[in-house]
Amino acid sequence: MVCVCNATYCDMLDPLVLPPLGSYIKYESSKAGKRLEQSEGKFQRRLCAPDVVLTLDTTQRFQRVKGFGGSVTDAAAINILSLPEKAQDHLLRSYFSEEGLEYNLVRLPMASCDFSLHAYTYDDVPYDYKLAHFRLRDEDTKLKASAGREQSQSLHPLLQIPVLHRALAMSKRPLSLYASPWTSPTWMKTSESYVGKGTLKGQAGDRFHKTWANYFIRFLDEYAKHNLTFWAVTAENEPTAGLINNYPFQCLGFTAEQQRDFIARDLGPALANSSHRHVQLIILDDNRLHLPHWAKVVLEDEEAARYVHGIGIHWYLDFIGPIQDTVLPTHELFPDYFILATEACIGAHFWERDVILGCWDRGNQYSHSILTNLNHYVAGWTDWNLALDLEGGPNWVKNYVDSPIIVDSSEGIFYKQPMFYHMGHFSKFIPEGSQRVGLVASKESKQTDLEYTAFLRPDGAVVVVVLNR
């Protein structure tokens, strides 16, 4: 089952109002068709012993939450802006407003990725070490950022009010933007290609590495001109991808040692000495399989560690990297660095179909991942594309995947999938600054399929999320 939205109709939620003392509000979604359906009740003094009792212990305190959200890729922006303007508004409200999921994290590719129409960077002029030719592309100024009135007049009317500014305008919560590069300009790479196996030429501290570090600063400078400031950058999207022969789309290879040295000698100092010194730096941004090794290599080096704030993880190889062997020891070794899930989507594996409209199990997979991560000290969870088309694109290498919102631009409609509502059970109710607290099940729960977590919100309310698969 999917929910269909267009220019005149879209299902929305009432803004959250906390219940009076002694009462609770329940939001339920189900395979049978409930979608964040609201009901209220009062706490009972007597317990008519059910099978499972969950006991809350707010004296047990764990990690604080950074938030939840998704990614504004070129593909996501193209799909959103392909709709009639009122439908665009409904889609963005569904994610960012009080009547929607109240996302507060937005990830942006720094230039192109596979979910672009073509490969490009912001400075494809060879050996431009001064980055004199650095410029944002149409994909940024016409889709993601504000283009200014004069420029926007010449564009297609749908592109006049770009995505990020509209999301910011309708969001009551502060949005935290973070950016990740897929590839450097080809003239900086050993492969001299956007794709395939390749690293930066030379070594940390040289002009290639200094120029690449300055490229981050220029990106932040250019977005700042459009009144968009960033909470964080990741040092590289999936740095191990660029170590793989014939890798099919944009990548830039780093070993853990190369990332450590690049941060210590180039990227860390570049950020610290710029007007963007407040921007946080996230390492890894790759499958958790590489933990705790990657974190040890980078964070046991004092020079690199002083510039780093957090560790980003992707979900694609979770089935061969159990969380208790990867994330948990990393948190125990480096408790002062946050761990954030920075990318996830379904349909990326060859055995998965790209888009399956209305697939409840895919929603379950999202909730299972989020719950597992939250219960192991992860501070938040970022979905991949905010919206894709019926094929699961556009994607210039046809690496199609699924998304919580699927757009059918020919009909001027979009579909909210089960994944969308599963995301909402976390993003809407667990705001930034919430702290995970103890939640223990009675022994009987061993025989159930229940997964659960609990958080104390900054306003003093407690949120319990339970998944029954």
Walk me through this protein's architecture:
The structure is a single chain. The protein folds into two domains: 3-15 and 66-430, Alpha-Beta Barrel (TIM Barrel), CATH 3.20.20.80; 50-63 and 433-469, Immunoglobulin-like (Sandwich). It has helices at residues 74-80, 85-96, 138-144, 149-153, 163-170, 207-225, 256-272, 293-299, 302-305, 323-333, 360-374, 418-427, and strands at 3-5, 23-28, 37-42, 54-64, 67-71, 105-110, 176-181, 232-234, 280-287, 310-314, 338-343, 378-385, 388-389, 405-408, 413-416, 435-441, 450-456, 462-468. The chain has 469 residues and is of the alpha/beta class. The longest helix is centred in the middle third of the chain and has 19 residues, at 207-225. The protein starts with a strand and ends with a strand. The model is unreliable at 147-161 (pLDDT under 50). The protein contains twelve helices and 18 strands. An eight-stranded parallel beta barrel has the order 5-6-7-8-9-10-11-12, surrounded by five helices. Strands 1-15-14-13 form a four-stranded mixed beta sheet. 47% of the residues are buried.
Element layout with pairings:
Elements lengths: L2 E3 L17 E6 L8 E6 L11 E11 L2 E5 L2 H7 L4 H12 L8 E6 L27 H7 L4 H5 L9 H8 L5 E6 L25 H19 L6 E3 L21 H17 L7 E8 L5 H7 L2 H4 L4 E5 L8 H11 L4 E6 L16 H15 L3 E8 L2 E2 L15 E4 L4 E4 L1 H10 L7 E7 L8 E7 L5 E7 L1
Parallel strand pairs: 5-6, 5-12, 6-7, 7-8, 8-9, 9-10, 10-11, 11-12, 13-14
Antiparallel strand pairs: 1-15, 2-3, 4-16, 14-15, 16-17, 17-18
Helix pairs in contact: 2-5, 6-7, 7-8, 11-12
